[in-house]
Amino acid sequence: ADSGGAIASFSDANGAYHVVAVGIDGYVILLSFDPTPGSWTGTPFESVAQQVSPGSGLSGIVDTNGLFVFYIATDNSVHVLHNANADFNLTANTTSDPSNMPPPNVAQKSSLSSFSDEYGEHVVYIGADQHVHQFVNKLGSPDTTWNDQDLTKIATPFLANAVPLAAQMSALSAFANPN
């Protein structure tokens, strides 16, 4: 893996755990441990993914719709690798469109955070406008139906001047409310 690159980890309902890293070639690698046979497997994604932008964060989740790995690619868009079947054939989907929302702030080495809840899959990132943004893929939607929300704009009326610009933040974290 890239010694200066990002790393993320998460587990699934079957007790398997997954580690996502960036290889020295700049592509995402997924390492998975299956507790039943007690063995690790590795999945490189150079055939389906774009290279990871230097400084990009990584994030991943597992829910009833499969496994999702998020990263910022060299085209300055958030991408998702998603397995929707047992064969683990992942496809890369661009989740950001600079024509209708700010792209991630790669120069700032934007971190990513993700979670899943009853509304769908979420990935949070810092945009080039220095706002915190969230992409939401509503449950039951195809992978191409990611909707952007500017969380800084949404929160500002409620918190007046208490919402800092993302440039003053160093990391992001997000989670689903279990209630």
Task: Tell me the span between the first and last alpha carbons.
Answer: 37 Å
Radius of gyration, taken over Cα atoms and rounded to an integer in Å: 16 Å
Classify the secondary structure makeup into a structural class.
mainly beta
* Binned strand content: 35-45%
Give the number of helices.
1
Question: Helicity, in percent?
Answer: under 10%
Shape assignment: globular
Q: What is the total tally of β strands?
A: 12
Strands across the major sheet, in which order?
A: 1-2-3-4
If you average the pLDDT, what whole number results?
75
Main beta-sheet strand count, sense and barrel state: 4 strands, antiparallel
Q: In words, what does this structure look like?
A:
There is one protein chain. The chain has 179 residues and is mainly β. The chain is 5% helix and 41% strand. It contains one helix and twelve strands. It has one helix at 151-159, and strands spanning 7-11, 17-22, 28-34, 39-44, 58-63, 66-72, 78-83, 90-94, 112-117, 120-126, 132-138, 146-150. A four-stranded antiparallel beta sheet has the order 1-2-3-4, with no helix packed on it. A four-stranded antiparallel beta sheet has the order 5-6-7-8, with no helix packed on it. The longest helix has 9 residues, at 151-159. The mean pLDDT is 75.
List the helices and strands and how they pair.
Layout: E1 7-11, E2 17-22, E3 28-34, E4 39-44, E5 58-63, E6 66-72, E7 78-83, E8 90-94, E9 112-117, E10 120-126, E11 132-138, E12 146-150, H1 151-159
Antiparallel strand pairs: 1-2, 2-3, 3-4, 5-6, 6-7, 7-8, 9-10, 10-11, 11-12
